[in-house]
């Protein structure tokens, strides 16, 4: 049985992916900051597959290293890594930006992805097999005003994915970079710091992508035949033509 590890597994895309891959026969290592929610999901999925949880904040290297060091030997052979955890904070121009928000995005979206990957990649290289899926964003394709740091952090994910592919293909490791458009998750609630009315308004007047849509894409990529590697995949809701343009009430 293959083992998949998912960061940011307590909600949204991460949770939907954990549910789907469990049904597909993967053992799951679920990572997140909210211990209580991790345990709830573990209880839910344990009726389907084996589940192990790791509680850490990937923005902090020592937490990441301690978490991976704690894995029992029977869980250390990781076949699939889904780097899903990330965040967006604030929607202001650079001149008014909160530097703590900048740190949160760069530390979580870029450095945290690197920290987790560094713990997983050596084992994949030793076994000459594995698959890494990095969740980027269409924000990496087109920078928009008032979201410059977030866009930059996701552009970094694209570049890291390219670099991983250059370094890891010879070891039989596939790397997939996925750029979702608007997905209806807690993303906007986090960006707007808990303002639910403002967050909910983002998804009104059209059908956004659902977490399950991205989970389906991830499942397709990691279950493709051995000779098939999906390098980059951009997914929009049907009413979105580019990062800044959504046609509502169609």
Automatic annotation (TrEMBL):
Keyword Oxidoreductase carried by entry: yes
PROSITE patterns recorded: ADH_SHORT
Keywords in alphabetical order: Oxidoreductase
Cited Pfam families: adh_short
Keyword Disulfide bond attributed: no
Signal peptide: none
PANTHER family in the record: ALCOHOL DEHYDROGENASE (PTHR42901)
Family according to the record: Belongs to the short-chain dehydrogenases/reductases (SDR) family.
Name assigned to this protein: SDR family NAD(P)-dependent oxidoreductase
């Amino acid at each position: 049985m293959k083992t998949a590890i998912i960061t940011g597994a307590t909600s949204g895309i991460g949770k939907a992916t954990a549910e789907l891959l469990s049904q597909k026969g993967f053992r799951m290592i679920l990572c997140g900051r909210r211990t209580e929610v991790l345990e709830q999901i573990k209880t839910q999925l344990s009726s389907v597959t084996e589940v192990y949880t790791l509680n850490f904040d990937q923005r902090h290297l020592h937490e990441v290293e301690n978490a991976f060091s704690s894995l029992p030997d029977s869980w250390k052979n990781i076949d699939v890594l889904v780097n899903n955890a990330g965040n967006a904070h604030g929607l202001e121009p650079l001149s008014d930006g909160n530097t703590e928000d900048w740190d949160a995005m760069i530390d979580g979206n870029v450095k945290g992805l690197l920290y987790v990957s560094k713990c997983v990649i050596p084992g994949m290289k030793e076994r000459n097999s594995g698959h890494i899926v990095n969740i980027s964003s269409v924000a990496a394709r087109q920078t928009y005003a008032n979201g410059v740091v977030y866009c930059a952090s996701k552009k970094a994910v694209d570049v890291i994915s390219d670099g991983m592919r250059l370094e890891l293909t010879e070891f039989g490791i596939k790397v997939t970079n996925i750029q979702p458009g608007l997905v209806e998750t807690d993303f906007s609630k986090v960006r707007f710091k808990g303002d639910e009315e403002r967050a909910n308004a983002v998804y009104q007047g059209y059908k956004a992508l659902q977490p399950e849509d991205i989970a389906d894409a991830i499942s397709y990529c990691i279950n493709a035949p051995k000779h098939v590697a999906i390098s980059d995949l951009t997914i929009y809701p049907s009413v979105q033509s580019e990062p800044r343009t959504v046609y509502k009430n169609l």
